[in-house]
Amino acid sequence: MTDKSGSQDAVVIERTLDAPVELIWQMWTDPEHFKAWYGPDGATIPVAKMDVRVGGTRLVSMEMQTPNGPMQMWFTGEYREVVENERLVYTESMSDENGNVLSPADMGMPDGHPTTTEVRVELEDVGGRTKMVMTHSGIPGDSPGAAGWAMAFDKLAAHVRQMTADQN
Amino acid sequence: MAIDEDRLSETFAALANSTRRAILARLAEGEATVNELAEPFEMTLPAISKHIKVLERAGLVRRGQRAQYRPCALDAAPLGEVSTWAEQYRRVWEARFDRMDDYLTQLRPQRRTGEQDD
């Protein structure tokens, strides 16, 4: 087991893309570009409102075709860091079409599931190409028990790994 | 999707309580009886038993079959599923970035290929 699999509450992905940082920045901040790649396969992004400045809000809808007809999901959030062509940090929560945050309980999720997650995008120019590091993490402490949950879970996972190692 | 979402919900719900996490942490050190598990808590045995039942339903705790004694033991398998669940998020993002890559290629069909040349 690696350390990577130990961080259960964050996804970190690094990519090097064959385009300048200015264009990659637009991929995240220009709604028309964003719509082109963001949705899962088979989904569309009918709405992408982005007020890209610190404290500005975003509202994104995703429409998927299901056997029961189209299903629409809404996500809202706030920009926390905006450093053009370098760093973009925003929060994300499920919401209704007016950007009212829906609690995990509303969505049928159990207590302790983070209401809000954070997406952090860091860009670096590498000889005309762009190194992009995206970190998507839960925000501890924004929902009751979430922080304690994440901490205890890390400890527990360490215990379990230790146990598994001892048994082998 | 290979992951059983209901099962995962149950796992998360079970982990979302400090008493139950403490019980799991104790069991990570070795099996224990309900009485032993109850010791550190100012709780009645029935209250502790209730927590253990939640953990059992989530598949995180197994109970021995020996009558009366029936020690509790940790079952780590559902925790493996939780990490797989995090992997699901990873796959969503990987797919997105694959599409971003394709889209970037579409944006510059006539762009020169010798980009390494200075």
Strand order of the largest sheet of chain A: 1-7-6-5-4-3-2
Termini separation of chain B comes to: 47 Å
CATH topology of chain B: Arc Repressor Mutant, subunit A
Number of domains of chain B: 1
Q: Care to count the β-strands of chain B?
A: 2
The percent of residues in helical segments of chain A reads: 10-25%
Specify the overall morphology of chain B: rod-shaped
Strand order of the largest sheet of chain B: 1-2
Helix and strand sequence of chain B: HHHHEEH
Question: Poorly predicted ranges of chain B (pLDDT <50, ≥5 residues)?
Answer: 114-118
CATH class of chain B: Mainly Alpha
Model regions low in confidence, pLDDT < 50 over at least 5 residues of chain A: 1-8, 140-152
CATH topology of chain A: Alpha-D-Glucose-1,6-Bisphosphate, Chain A, domain 4
Distance between the termini of chain A: 13 Å
**Number of individual domains of chain A:** 1
Indicate the proportion of strand residues of chain B: 5-15%
Fold blueprint:
The complex is a heterodimer of chains A (168) and B (118).
Chain A: E1 10-17, H1 21-29, H2 31-37, E2 43-50, E3 57-66, E4 69-83, E5 87-95, E6 116-126, E7 129-138, H3 146-167
Antiparallel strand pairs in A: 1-7, 2-3, 3-4, 4-5, 5-6, 6-7
Helix pairs in contact in A: 1-2
Chain B: H1 5-15, H2 18-27, H3 34-38, H4 45-57, E1 61-63, E2 72-74, H5 77-107
Antiparallel strand pairs in B: 1-2
Helix pairs in contact in B: 1-4, 1-5
Quick structural overview:
The complex is a heterodimer of chains A (168) and B (118). Chain A has 168 residues and is α+β, with helices and mostly antiparallel strands.
Mind explaining what this structure looks like?
The complex is a heterodimer of chains A (168) and B (118). By secondary structure, chain A is of the alpha+beta class. Chain A has one domain: 2-Layer Sandwich (Alpha-D-Glucose-1,6-Bisphosphate, Chain A, domain 4), CATH 3.30.530. Chain A contains three helices and seven strands; from the N terminus they run E-H-H-E-E-E-E-E-E-H. Chain A has helices at 21-29, 31-37, 146-167; strands at residues 10-17, 43-50, 57-66, 69-83, 87-95, 116-126, 129-138. Chain A has a seven-stranded antiparallel beta sheet with strand order 1-7-6-5-4-3-2. In chain A, strand 6 (116-126) and strand 7 (129-138) form a beta hairpin. In chain A, helix 1 crosses helix 2. Chain A is globular and about 50 Å long. Residues 1-8 and 140-152 of chain A have low confidence and may be disordered. Chain B is mainly alpha-helical. In chain B, helix 1 (5-15) runs antiparallel to helix 4. In chain B, a hairpin with an 8-residue loop joins strand 1 (61-63) and strand 2. Chain B has one domain (1-107): Arc Repressor Mutant, subunit A (Orthogonal Bundle), CATH 1.10.10.10. Residues 114-118 of chain B have low confidence and may be disordered. Chain B has helices spanning 5-15, 18-27, 34-38, 45-57, 77-107, and strands at residues 61-63, 72-74. Chain B has a two-stranded antiparallel ribbon with strand order 1-2. Classes of the chains: A alpha+beta (168), B mainly alpha (118). Chain A binds chain B through residues 5, 8-11, 13, 15, 17-19, 23, 27, 33, 36-38, 40-41, 108-113, 128, 132, 134, 136, 145, 148-149, 152-153, 155-157, 159-160, 162-164, and chain B through 9-10, 12-13, 15-18, 21, 24-25, 28-29, 74, 76, 79, 82-83, 86, 89-90, 92-97, 99-105, 107-108, 115.
